[in-house]
């Protein structure tokens, strides 16, 4: 199999992604953005739930197309003996396998780690599941909202005294995918320094990934006896930091949590006496009198239109921003100047909008990837590279193995 000639830092790394839905495919997609050669493996019937997750059109799986960007696609049913044999032949040419089946699934299919290593000792396997490979919850099905609830994230979201809330997006999957990409980059770094190191068996729990992000909560509970809870948009760890409604009905977020920034906010408000008030002299004191302070800021915002407020706050170097809709994102001049959104070439739809590669590497502009592949789109290319003839591919297709 040829190696990509892109100039990303993960160029030459070869990843076989047999994950489904969001988290695991997002991990390999991030690696593809940085130059890794990623092949997306799915069942011949195209039954990956992501193909039916909104946004979707009758003939086009839009979420699939943007999430699986930059990948080539093959189809294969590894549950069948001939499919398993072909898989083991294929895996010899890859550095990383990505999967997100329940623990023990690959083992039942005769694709346990020892078998994979026997065919490719250099192969690392990223296993991304809801709760990890062991423990009493290991075999529970994993979904983003479950990770968010169990990690405590949902408990922090919502109005004080109200119900916990999920955001209208599978954030838990995205966070897990970020940790997945980090895991892949880690084994690639190890291999670069220690070329003879054996492959790694990586156990990534999506729920533990969210726990890692929420790192101060356990020590806060133990050392202070307090439990962080829902507080609407108001931060309770720093002050002031909240979302406020303007005179013209626009929501803006303002952060004035450092002492110097708070003093500049008071100047912008024309209420310098707040900066000199002992109740608001430091962040701990502002937090102790948070409601009173927030009411003053909310009242000030309600007397001014959004454009006026943001101009005034900007002139005093106080961080603020309108709460953007997706239309605001698409039209923002900074995002346009940076090229933060790109158009992914698509053979059926021309192109589709999507976020640009993150991060950027100075002096090494990254090419814009094309959208995710159709079912088995690159079967002839990928299988042909390992010696499977066109006649054999036709036979395997007739048996629904590919």
Describe, in plain words, how this protein is organized in 3D:
The longest helix is centred in the middle third of the chain and has 23 residues, at 171-193. The protein has 402 residues and is an alpha/beta fold. It has 18 helices and eleven strands. It starts with 13 loop residues before the first strand and ends with a helix.
The SS-based structural class is alpha/beta
The N- to C-terminal Cα distance equals: 19 Å
What is the count of β-strands? 11
What portion of the residues fall into strands of 2 or more residues?
5-15%
Q: Element order, helices and strands?
A: EHEHEHEHHEHHEHHEEHHHHHEHHEEHH
Q: Quick one: overall form?
A: elongated
Q: Enumerate the strands of the largest sheet in spatial order, edge to edge or round the barrel.
A: 3-2-1-4-5-6
Helix content: 25-40%
List its salient traits.
single chain, 402 residues, alpha/beta, 6-stranded parallel beta sheet, 3-stranded antiparallel beta sheet, 18 helices, 11 strands, elongated, disordered N terminus
Describe the SSE topology.
Layout: E1 14-17, H1 23-33, E2 37-42, H2 62-67, E3 71-75, H3 81-90, E4 96-99, H4 105-108, H5 113-119, E5 124-129, H6 144-151, H7 171-193, E6 201-205, H8 206-213, H9 216-224, E7 241-245, E8 251-255, H10 259-269, H11 272-276, H12 283-288, H13 290-302, H14 306-315, E9 320-322, H15 326-331, H16 333-338, E10 341-346, E11 350-355, H17 379-384, H18 390-398
Parallel strand pairs: 1-2, 1-4, 2-3, 4-5, 5-6
Antiparallel strand pairs: 7-8, 8-9, 10-11
Helix pairs in contact: 1-7, 6-8, 7-8
């Amino acid at each position: 199999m040829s190696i990509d000639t892109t100039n990303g830092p993960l160029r030459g790394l070869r990843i076989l992604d047999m994950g489904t839905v969001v988290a695991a495919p997002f991990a390999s997609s991030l690696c593809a953005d940085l130059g890794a050669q990623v092949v997306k493996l799915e069942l011949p019937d195209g039954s990956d739930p992501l193909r039916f997750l909104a946004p979707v059109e009758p003939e086009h799986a839009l979420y699939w197309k943007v999430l699986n960007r930059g990948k080539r696609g093959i189809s294969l049913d590894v549950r069948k003996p001939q499919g398993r044999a072909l898989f083991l032949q294929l895996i010899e040419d890859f550095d990383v396998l990505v999967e997100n089946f329940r623990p023990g699934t690959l083992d039942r299919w005769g694709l346990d780690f020892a078998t994979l290593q026997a065919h490719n000792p250099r192969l690392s396997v990223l296993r991304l599941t809801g709760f990890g490979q062991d423990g009493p919850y290991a075999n529970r099905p994993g979904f983003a909202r479950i990770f968010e609830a169990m990690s405590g994230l949902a408990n922090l979201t919502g109005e004080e005294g109200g119900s916990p809330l999920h955001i209208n997006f599978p954030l838990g999957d995205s966070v897990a995918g970020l940790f997945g990409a980090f895991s892949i980059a880690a084994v690639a770094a190890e291999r670069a320094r220690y070329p003879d190191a054996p492959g790694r068996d990586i156990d990534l729990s999506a729920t533990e990934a969210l726990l890692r992000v929420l790192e101060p909560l356990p020590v806060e509970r133990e050392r202070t006896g307090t439990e962080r809870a829902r507080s609407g948009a108001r931060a309770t760890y720093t002050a002031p930091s909240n979302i406020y409604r303007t005179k013209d009905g626009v929501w803006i977020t303002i952060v004035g949590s450092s002492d110097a920034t708070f003093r500049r906010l008071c100047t912008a408000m024309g209420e310098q006496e707040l900066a000199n008030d002992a109740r608001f002299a430091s962040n701990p004191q502002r937090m102790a009198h948070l409601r009173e302070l927030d009411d003053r800021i909310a009242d000030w915002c309600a007397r001014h239109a959004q454009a006026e407020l943001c101009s005034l706050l900007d002139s005093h170097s106080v961080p603020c921003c309108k709460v953007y809709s997706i239309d605001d994102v698409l039209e923002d001049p900074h995002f346009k100047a940076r090229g933060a959104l790109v158009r992914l070439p698509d053979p059926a739809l021309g192109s589709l909008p999507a976020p640009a590669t993150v991060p950027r590497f100075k002096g090494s502009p990254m090419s814009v990837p094309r959208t995710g592949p159709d079912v088995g789109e690159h079967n002839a290319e990928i299988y042909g590279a390992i010696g499977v003839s066109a006649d054999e591919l036709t036979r395997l297709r007739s048996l629904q193995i590919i």
